[in-house]
Amino acid sequence: MTATAESPVTISSGQDMTQVIPVLMPGATYASVTDQIGGIVQRPLTWLWIMAFGITFVVVMVLTGAIAYLLLRGVGIWGIDIPVAWGFAITNFVWWIGIGHAGTFISAMLLLMRQNWRTSINRFAEAMTLFAVACAGMFPLMHLGRIKFFYWLAPYPNTMALWPQFRSALVWDVFAVSTYGLVSLIFWYVGLIPDLATMRDRSRNRFTWTIYGMMAMGWRGDSRHWLRYQTAYLLLAGLAAPLVVSVHSIVGMDFSEAQLPGWHSTIFPPYFVAGAIFSGFAMVLTLAIPMRSLFGFKNLITIRHIDNCCKLMLVTELLVAYGYAAEVYTGWYSGSVYESYMTMNRFIGPYAPAYWSLIFCNIVAPQILWSRRVRQNVIIVFILSLVINVGMWLERFMIIITSLQRDFLPSSWGMYYPTFWDWATFIGTLGLFFCMFFLFARLLPAISIAEVRELVHETAGGSVPPSKMEPANVI
Amino acid sequence: MNLSEVRSRLSNQRGQALWRSMEELCDTPEFRKSLEREFPGGVDGWINSGDQSRRRFLQLMGASLMLAGAGTMSGCSDKPRDEKIVPYVDAPEMLVAGKPMFFATAMPMGGFGRGVLVCSQEGRPIKIEGNPDHPASLGGTDSFMQASILGLYDPDRSQAVTRGGEISTWAAFWETVRPRLESKRQTGGEGVRLLLEPTTSPTVLAQLDELQRQFPRLRRHHWDPIGRENTTAGMVAAYGKSFAAQYDLSAARVVVSLDSDFLFDESASLRYSRQFMDGRRVRRDRQEMNRLYVAEGTLTITGSTADHRLAIRPSEIAILARALAAACGVSGVNTEMPAGREKWINAAAADLAANRGACLVMVGESQPAEVHALGHAINHLLGNLGHTVHFTEPVLGQSDSLDVLVDEMRSGKIDTLLIFGTNPAYTSPADIPFAAELLRMSKMRSADGTFANLTAHLGLYDDETAYLCQWHLHQSHYLESWGDIRAFDGTASILQPLIAPLYGGKSASEVLEVLLGRPERSAYEVLRGYWVSQWKNADFERQWSTALKSGVIAGTALPLQDLGSPKVVASASEKSAGEWEVVFRPDYSVWDGCFSNNPWLQELPRPFTKLTWDNAAMISPATAEKLNVVDGDVVRLMLNKRSINAPVLVTPGVPDGVISVSLGYGRLRAGHIGTVHGDQTIGVGFDAYAIRTAGERWFAGGVQVIKTKRTHRLVMTRSHHAMGTFTNKESLKPDAIATEQTPEWARETANRKLVRVATLEQFKANTNIIKELGGESEKKPLLSLYPGPEHGGWDYSKGYQWGMSIDLTSCIGCNACVVACQAENNIPVVGKEEISRQREMHWIRIDDYFGGSLDDPKIYHQPVPCMHCENAPCEYVCPVGATTHSVEGLNQMTYNRCVGTRYCSNNCPYKVRRFNFLAYADAETTEQRKLQRNPDVTVRTNGVMEKCSYCIQRIQRTRIEAEKMLVENSGAQQAEFNLIERLQTACQQACPTRAIEFGSIIPVGGEKTRVAKLKDEPLDYGLLRELSTRPRTTYLARLTNPNPSIEPAKGGAA
Q: B732 and A341: CB-CB below 8 Å?
């Protein structure tokens, strides 16, 4: 960690920060970028990586065990009950799906908005999206009472002559999540093709040469390749961008469709999308900050990136805060005993600690991001990103559990206590996520070589101030 | 084929010859030919014939596959076995496979019979209903009757005669007992004692009398831990002789109960419940109610229905009774008025006096003889005899008591003890060392080393008493045996077996017959023999079959007696009750312990507390504060140097200073379900008999209560403190009960209006009051974005439209409907651990709400089945359409389609849906218990949602009948109406007070149905109506009838 790169930059008033911190540190050349990023993949395994991978792999085995036991016994191994028929599974689903949002937001939305600083973080953010969606996608399947009939949620021609019930948001969810997963995968893969070709060309043995070669699909760097590639990439970005909004809107509708106090709310779709991007950027920072230091990417992922992510988090955090406020206001304004009770129950009921913790994590703590000094202090930002991850998980827990826990008839009120298997499944997916991420970091270029090279070209090796840069992907 | 040729060919071959058949060995031309024809004839024909069509090919294919299947089924044997099977052509008369048949019999309990109709499907009894013709049932049942069907199939019932724990035979027992009795013929049966449950069975009593004639010195004793000793003693004190009292509550306008739980623990409770509630039904055209005053020493379901309930220490009830008698004008009682009770006593006395001949004072068995005598005196003085009170000769057979027997056992006078049915080793009073004496008797050896005594126990279970006896004889269940029994008024019924004894058990009457020296006679012959002797001149066969069909023997009720004026007993001197009093009560689920091994009953949420799988020491909130204990804290109750450890359960309504415990738990040998293992996750309570003495069987003062450091996990089906005024945080207290005092604004924004309550006076003054309690949303039609029938939405105005009406005034919270539903719909039992996770499976539940103050709460029972909403929130959220609406307005659950997302339950505002979180139905259900299952109802698998279906199987059966009838005779509108009106759901059929009505809510055959009329009543309201769910199940509001002199008319009910 060099002092110059990490120390907060003092900027006098009126001075544009972008003049001071570039998105690419000076001195970069095509070769240096390629060596730096591609070299990570080719260097020998380190003990640190083996240990980290090993630990997460053990956790994946815990997940496997939890799923095996689930298949054996049924969802009763979890703490769910009547009235709280949804517990950790759906909480985790919404949380993971939310985390998955940042990747597509960075690569598609920011691409369309011509935000060049995205280039050095989009690759691993997209990978993060994929892994998060993979983790998320498991939960709706696992939480079914009869997992063997999951495919009944899909509209397929069958001898029963039955369709899914299209009024149910759970069916929309199937479409939304699977589309999102698929488009994210294609987008990520298309973006990888030039880099895979680079890796093929840098291969030192036949095995990697074959694998990367097959995956590169015959990429030669031909200008026609580049032309079509750029077109396809942009079109895919156009396709992916609306998904950022649609997926979590539909996940929000999973709840707002119900008439349960605490779920039955029109604020949910926008509030969920904002929350998703909020938690997604938190996870991007959780991954980026250690990675830039461990893999020596500080020249590629600069303080500028971190600063930008923080600003986006602050914006989405304010939207989320508005959502919380609207919920409380609705509880009072509705004049409904059920709505107002639900609100009071969140404030002082048995799960009040979870509510106040999430208020602290998601609303109070992120206020420090107003300060530039904080935004540029990677340690604080890293800790804050963890706090926000916890807070966003608690938010989903609060929405699901406290709404179900005490609804209309006091006779049916109850509590939800997670069991060992609830935790095993949740922690297991965390293990799966990081396990896949560690594999990704060693097998594929974690930063897009091609796009950074483009950036080198546009900024003339980082010497041109970014404000003078031409937008990268102009057709 | 020539065998000698075969032999020669074999002998000529060299090496190891392998041959497949003798034909092959013979190498006959037929064999060769058959080899050439690789395919059987049909195919050859197809190939060679010109008709090589696809159709013909498929025909051959189908036929071949069928043959292949048939070949597999016959077990690949070369030829069918020569064993004849016979199709079911000679089915028993009237039996139509798939159609249930009903048989009348009676269930004995406490010696009295209650008439039941048993539903039998293909020879398996599967469900119990009340017999409408039986005076003690009137068509209603209680939870014990409903659950007794599961007792029949209990795999833990003893299945063999045992001697010293080793399996033996009936014959071996006969060979032991007969010579022993014969040898005593000279001494007249000296030293022989029988210990029986009290019984009213005419046949058994006749057999006992005959045995007594054969052995004049044989003595018989009875033991029943619940018993009627105080009632009888009270009768003797008042009238000098034992009589049986029966009450007619239909003629009573004012009822005063002194510690009497007459809706639960009387032999005629079902009848009393019906009569009492019939006098409380307020309708548009009948605006009067009876009034109930209850003074009680614990919290009972009778108390919960009272208009004026006084929770006082049981020892104070005698003082109260004296003051009440004095206030009523009974002479000869001291007139000291207990402080603070004047209002209640004076109001009750004035009310009683104003209703001479139409009022009633009932005294519970738990009160001493003196109070009973006072009750008789008041009833006599107010001219109730012959109106609300009737007397007959005692119905129960008379015999000596248990303590006399134990004295004789101790003195060694007895060498032969035969115990029939009862379980005194567990239930005997703590100060009567029955178990110890029995053990001593069983083990004692004579000089030659053989057992000196003979002890034997006939019972359904190898229980605590069986363990201490040398012999245990397995008894047949009442559904497996012939017998007879009388009801509370003497009306006799014949018990007919619904199934041959599953484990070859014998009834008491069969064992007695062997003792009488006639081992060859079956119970059937004995029974018929008795009734032949009774109906000497009648056409026996005809009378017999009438008795079997109707379930009662006409004209067997005992004649009513005209009694003179009762004696008033001089007041006994009061002994100080001390700081704490303990109250013992039969349990609402296991009675005296005889139902301990019944999982339905163990899992049944007890009234008020909703406790399952345990009993608890119920104490009032004030007592809890004083003792500094909370729910689950274990206290040690010390009484006369004996002690038990009991977890406390704070229950508003229990009098201060009283610790109320129920009997029947803590059993050591009950079976797999009911035995205590000391494991908190399984439960089943503590044994309260351990401190209960013969002298103080129902309550005892001077008990010491010591808080221990231990806790016990009590598991309730409601969350802690959710149901009433006692939440831990005041601002989180749910306001569920709406009364006139509920301010107008709160009816919309602060009150849930789940239970709407008014007094009779308020209702008379404003018949619209119940609707007004609904607040703003009740005044305007509910708006919906969905189209009505006029715009293509659902049209609910044709055919049958099913609906239900539940009368909250009539519901006594007895749980009969819950068990009935469980029996009818194959609802699994989940166990204490799963209940603790809030995963109970009952399709109908009784929500008990507490209103008023903590120290004097009002209690409201609210049965909640599925509401079958017309706008069902559960339906539109299901992603696979597993829950849908029928054109008849039923919210249907298609188990086969359910994938188990559980969203329907999340979105159900009534939370009536139940989920199979684990494999509840099949995992641990024993094969015997599976026999009880209703073949018309699917058994649900793991991961499937389920809920009340309004007993769709019963609806379908009736619909089919109605359709058939209308096809045959399109003008049969009246018959159709009658048929549909006879359709009953299981909960409705079980309800002793007819609080539940079900039927079509639109006219059938042009006539308005019962339920439709009820829905037009001004008392009708829908639960959570403001959600626009349009529930098909609606409620009739709870009305109370307080005395204006105690509760001014302006004051509300809550």
A: yes
DSSP state of A154: S
pLDDT at B18 over 90: no
Position B465 scores a pLDDT of: 93
In whole angstroms, give the CA distance from residue B503 to residue B500.
9
Confidence bin at B746 (pLDDT 50/70/90): confident
Q: What is the distance between the alpha carbons of residues A317 and A321, in angstroms, rounded to a whole number?
A: 6
Task: Compute φ and ψ for B194, nearest 5 degrees.
Answer: -110, 140
* CA B710 – CA B636 distance, rounded (Å): 10
Coil/strand/helix, residue B409: helix
Residue B51: pLDDT band by 50, 70, 90 thresholds?
low
Cα(B160)–Cα(B176) distance, rounded to whole angstroms? 16
H/E run at residue A212? helix A206-216
Residue B649 phi/psi, 5° resolution?
A: -135, 115
3-state secondary structure of A367: helix
**Cβ proximity of B935 and A104 under 8 Å:** no
Q: pLDDT band at B35, cuts 50/70/90?
A: low
Per-residue model confidence (pLDDT) at position B99:
83
Which of B589, B418, B382, B560 shows the shortest CA–CA distance to B488?
Answer: B560
DSSP letter, residue A376: T
- C-alpha to C-alpha distance for B345 and B1043, rounded to whole angstroms: 12
Q: Measured between beta carbons, which residues in chain A are less than 8 angstroms from residue B916?
A: 74, 145
The Cα-based distances of B952 to B943, B948, B959 in angstroms read 22, 9, 10
With CB atoms and an 8 Å threshold, state whether A340 touches B749. yes
Structure tokens given for B402:
């248990």
The full DSSP string for B81-138 is -S-----TTSPPTT--TTS-EEEEEEEEETTEEEEEEEEEETTEEEEEEE-TTSTTTT
Q: Which residue has the tokens 């178990």?
A: B435
Q: Inspect the interface and report whether the beta carbons of A83 and B906 lie closer than 8 Å.
A: yes
* pLDDT at A13 (0 to 100): 53
For residue B101, which phi and psi values (nearest 5 degrees)?
A: -120, 150
Contact assignment for B942 to A74 by CB distance below 8 Å: yes
Question: Does residue B450 carry a pLDDT above 90?
Answer: no
- CA B772 to each of CA B396, B738, B741, B756, B861: distance values in angstroms, whole numbers, following the listed order: 53, 10, 12, 10, 21
The SS3 call for residue B736 is coil
What is the least distance, in Å, from the CA of B684 to any CA of chain A?
23
Residue count of chain B:
1054
Write out chain A residues lying below 8 Å of B1027, CB-based.
259, 408
Least confident of A199-213, B199-213, B787-801, B861-875: B787-801
- Residue B294 φ/ψ, nearest 5 degrees: -130, 130
Residues in chain B closer than 8 A to A335 (CB atoms): 748-749
Task: List the structure tokens of B1031.
Answer: 């529930």
- Residue among B848, B877, B910 whose CB faces A257 most closely: B877
Q: Do B877 and A258 touch (CB under 8 A)?
A: yes
CA-nearest residue of chain A to B881?
A165
SS3 B194: strand
